[in-house]
Amino acid sequence: MGIATNLEQVRKQIEDVNSQYQRELGAVRLLAVSKTKPIADIITAYESGQRLFGENYVQEAIDKCAALSHLEHIEWHFIGPIQSNKSRLVAENLDWVHTLDREKIAIRLSEQRPESLAPLNVCIQVNISGEETKSGVHLEELQALVDLVISLPNLQLRGLMAIPAPQSSEDEQIRVYQPLLQAYKSLQAQLPNIDTLSIGMSGDMEAAIASGSTMVRIGTAIFGSR
């Protein structure tokens, strides 16, 4: 099957799960993870109505942004780790960052964001499974980073992101997501612009939507295996 057909199937699956959990139509946005995929594939997805694309590697993301800058309303989301020496490239070229988890990077992104651009949309990455090898702040550290981000002039805090450890069942996945959902709701009560809970990939999309996801990150089901 082609990319257009795959996209149609993924969108239907999202709306089916959305409906199952009695959430509003369109409550969950689809972020097409296009890392390592050729520009031709992104164009095919764009022509099928997809506008949000996620990239993990800075130089690849920059090259694609430049090559496709003529496409209207395309949105580039950075979903990989950010090294200090690459923060300027991200700040100057991307629309969103989902993986903010350090004060140093937050400050650099704000300082390096050109004044001619809108503030950079950011999600704070939370380590909800307590894995030492995973990026992300722990929930007890979240408020301190929130306070810093909202004080920075060229960042716009939009919400939270997480990549939990795989679980043995959907019920277990939902259970793991509950503390994150509570943190997200608490953040929404504090700040008017919080509207993004970036959770859910191919393996746990249903559990994520059941747990309040507003943006799922799907790659293989759209573009095929790398």
TrEMBL record:
Domain Alanine racemase N-terminal: 7-225
UniProt keyword Heme, yes or no: no
Residues carrying N6-(pyridoxal phosphate)lysine: 35
Function comment: Pyridoxal 5'-phosphate (PLP)-binding protein, which is involved in PLP homeostasis.
The protein's name: Pyridoxal phosphate homeostasis protein
Pfam families xref list: Ala_racemase_N
Cited InterPro entries: Ala_racemase_N, PLP-binding_barrel, PyrdxlP_homeostasis
Keywords: Pyridoxal phosphate
